Amino acid sequence: MPENARFMSNNWKDSTVIMAEGTNVEVVEDFCYLGSYLSRTGNCDKECMIRIGKAASVFGRLVNVWKSKSISLAVKVRLYESLVISTLLYGTESWLLSVTQMKKIRSSSP
After folding, report:
1. Cα within 13 Å of Cα(105), Cβ side
2. pTM value?
3. What is the reported pLDDT for 44?
4. DSSP track, the chain
5. Residues 101, 48: contact at Cβ < 8 Å?
6. If phi over 0 gives left and psi between -120 and 50 gives alpha, with beta otherwise, what is residue 34?
7. 66 and 84 in contact (C-beta within 8 Å)?
8. Which residue ranges make up each domain of the chain?
9. What span, in angstroms and rounded, lies between the C-alpha atoms of 102 and 94?
10. What pLDDT score does 7 carry?
């Protein structure tokens, strides 16, 4: 069994007590670290949905740009790629995506 296979299993239980400065560290299902949600099991459902929401929010805040006739299509595309897509894909290099999650991400971008 590969070393990281235990991390990805929903059945994995570890009874190791971790102490920091004399205090037990609480075991949680997921937590936010540096703006990304990490799960104990490696599942990234929550992070995937949050990223889609943040990208949709950025897209919506640019409504005046999208409606503007004085901004060229090329500039709009560059803004979309640099602001919306980069928000959507931030941190994805560490995600373990399921097929369903991959479809959600792909349907959120061109």
Report:
1. 22
2. 0.63
3. 77
4. --TTHHHH-TT-------EETTEEPPP-SEEEETTEEEETT---HHHHHHHHHHHHHHHHHTHHHHH-SSS-HHHHHHHIIIIIIHHHHTTGGG----HHHHHHHHHH--
5. yes
6. left
7. no
8. 5-108
9. 14
10. 47
**Regarding beta strands 30-33 and 36-39, do their DSSP bridges make them parallel or antiparallel, or are they unpaired?**
antiparallel
Residue tagged 């994995």 (tokens)? 12
Q: Taking 90 as the threshold, does the pLDDT of residue 67 lie above it?
A: yes
Tell me the pLDDT band of 49, cut-offs 50, 70 and 90: confident
Q: Kindly indicate the confidence band of residue 27, based on its pLDDT and cuts at 50, 70 and 90.
A: confident
Query: Which position has the higher pLDDT, 46 or 11?
Result: 46
Bridge partners for 19 per DSSP: 24
Whether the Cβ atoms of residue 8 and residue 42 lie closer than 8 Å to each other:
yes
In the block, residue with structure tokens 């894909």: 89
